[in-house]
């Protein structure tokens, strides 16, 4: 019988030095607000959920929020899902939202990165606003998110969804999250802003909107902006679409508010 207890494998299963490429170091990016303030955020070095990028939709969402701050942010409770670096959340807090909850998938690197960005932005945020960070998976129970709200609040006035609808299998969970978190009010709104980085998949991405309407919402397209530059210069597909940012508002249908 073989004596495996005395078998010494040594370093047989140890990967040789340099076998794996070194992990990328975190980088930093800046968003220049219309007010003249600059939001500087840390991006994780590399990540399968693209937390290493400051997406065009995040920038355009931030500009839209700043332009409409009196309507969408002042004194309001805001939830961002799929936040990555969290620039729209930070801008929302700076511009006077009462409560902002910045969320992304509960991966330790992503959540820690969001927390660092929230802490770095704290000196720019007025004392009347609060900015929180939560890990959250779309479709999961929302009690931890509601714990961030002021007492008596019945949901979020605004949900920010920047470059999340490209994840086609998650459309039902995105809609479920809206149903559970968006305040039952005619003024409550979800902003869905995205770029078709893979233009040939745009028809699949757009299926999100009729699905939302089937589940109690009204969808309104609010803009289509063509940017000067691509985010991914060498990607294939329609060149103009890869520079285009689409914006939609989603609100409760009147029937859901009766």
TrEMBL record:
Q: Is rRNA processing among this UniProt entry's keywords?
A: no
What cellular-component terms does GO give this entry?
cytoplasm
Q: State the Pfam families in the record.
A: Methyltransf_16
Q: Which UniProt keywords apply?
A: Cytoplasm, Methyltransferase, S-adenosyl-L-methionine, Transferase
| UniProt-annotated location(s) | Cytoplasm
The EC code for this enzyme is: 2.1.1.-
Annotated positions binding S-adenosyl-L-methionine: 55, 82-84, 104, 138, 162
Gene Ontology process terms (BP) = methylation
Q: Which GO terms describe its molecular function?
A: N-terminal protein N-methyltransferase activity; protein-lysine N-methyltransferase activity
S-adenosyl-L-methionine in keyword set: yes
InterPro entries registered for this protein in UniProt = EFM7 (IPR025784), Methyltransf_16 (IPR019410), SAM-dependent_MTases_sf (IPR029063)
In UniProt terms, what function does this protein have? S-adenosyl-L-methionine-dependent protein methyltransferase that trimethylates the N-terminal glycine 'Gly-2' of elongation factor 1-alpha, before also catalyzing the mono- and dimethylation of 'Lys-3'.
Family assignment from sequence similarity: Belongs to the class I-like SAM-binding methyltransferase superfamily. EFM7 family.
What is the designated name of this protein? Answer: Protein N-terminal and lysine N-methyltransferase EFM7
- Organism per entry: Aspergillus wentii DTO 134E9
What does the record give as the organism's lineage?
Eukaryota, Fungi, Dikarya, Ascomycota, Pezizomycotina
């Amino acid at each position: 019988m073989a004596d495996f207890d005395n078998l010494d494998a040594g370093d047989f299963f140890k990967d040789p030095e340099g076998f794996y490429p070194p992990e990328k170091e975190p980088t930093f990016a800046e968003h220049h607000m219309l007010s003249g303030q600059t939001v500087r955020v840390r991006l994780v070095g590399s990540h399968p959920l693209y937390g290493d990028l400051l997406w065009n939709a995040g920038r355009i969402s931030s500009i839209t929020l700043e332009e409409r701050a009196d309507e969408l942010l002042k004194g309001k409770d805001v939830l961002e899902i799929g936040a990555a670096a969290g620039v729209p959340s930070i801008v929302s807090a700076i511009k006077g939202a009462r409560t902002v909850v910045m969320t992304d998938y509960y991966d330790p690197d992503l959540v820690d990165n969001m927390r660092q960005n929230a802490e770095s932005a704290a000196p720019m945020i007025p004392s009347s606003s609060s900015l929180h960070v939560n890990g959250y998976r779309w479709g999961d129970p929302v009690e931890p998110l509601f714990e961030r709200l002021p007492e008596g609040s019945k949901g979020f006035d605004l949900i920010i969804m920047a470059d999340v609808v490209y994840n086609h299998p998650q459309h039902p969970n995105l809609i479920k999250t809206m149903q559970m978190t968006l305040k039952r009010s005619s003024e409550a709104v979800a902003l869905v802003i995205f770029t078709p980085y893979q233009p040939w998949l745009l028809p699949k991405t757009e299926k999100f909107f009729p699905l939302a309407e089937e589940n109690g919402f009204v969808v309104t397209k609010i803009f289509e902006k063509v940017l000067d530059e691509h985010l991914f210069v060498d990607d294939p597909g329609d060149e103009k679409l890869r520079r285009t940012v689409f914006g939609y508002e989603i609100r409760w249908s009147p029937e859901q508010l009766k």
